[in-house]
Write a structure and sequence with these properties.
The chain has 110 residues and is mainly beta. The chain has no helices and 10 strands. Strands 4-3-7-8 form a 4-stranded antiparallel β-sheet, with no helix packed on it. β7 and β8 form a beta hairpin. It is globular and about 35 Å long. The two termini are 17 Å apart.
C-alpha cells in the first residue's frame, strides 16, 4: 500500500535542494505511531515527524540500537485509517529537550 496516496499530505520542500540521497520525498503528516519491540517488550506511542514511501521518522523515549526490528501501527486521526507494518531502525539520534538528562528523547528513522 502506498502511504502517500492518502489525502492531505503536504510535501516538505527545501529551497535550492537538488536531489535527495535517500531517494524519497518527505511528507509532514500527523500520523499517530504505536511501536512495539518484541524482544524487550518495549512499547510506546508518539506522532511521526515525517514519512516517505520508504520510511518514517518519529521520536521515542528509549534508546534502541540500529537494526532493531519494530512492529508499527500508523493511524490517521483525521480519517481513522490504520496501517499495520514492521520496520527496522536505520538511524537514531539523541536530543535533550529540557535543562537536564530527564528530557532526553531519540529521533528515530525506521
Amino acid at each position: 500500500m502506498d502511504l502517500l496516496k492518502w489525502s492531505g499530505f503536504r510535501k516538505i520542500e527545501k529551497e535550492g535542494f537538488s536531489g535527495d540521497r535517500r531517494g524519497s520525498k518527505r511528507y509532514e503528516i500527523p500520523l499517530k505511531v504505536i511501536y512495539f519491540e518484541p524482544i524487550t517488550l518495549l512499547e510506546g506511542s508518539t506522532f511521526c515527524r515525517n514519512i516517505s514511501k520508504r520510511g518514517v521518522r518519529f521520536p521515542i523515549k528509549t534508546r534502541l540500537p540500529k537494526g532493531t526490528n519494530l512492529f508499527l501501527t500508523l493511524e490517521d486521526p483525521a480519517s481513522e485509517r490504520t496501517i499495520l507494518t514492521k520496520g527496522k531502525i536505520i538511524w537514531i539520534e539523541e536530543f535533550i529537550t529540557g535543562d537536564n538528562a530527564e528530557g532526553v528523547r531519540y529521533e528515530t528513522g525506521v
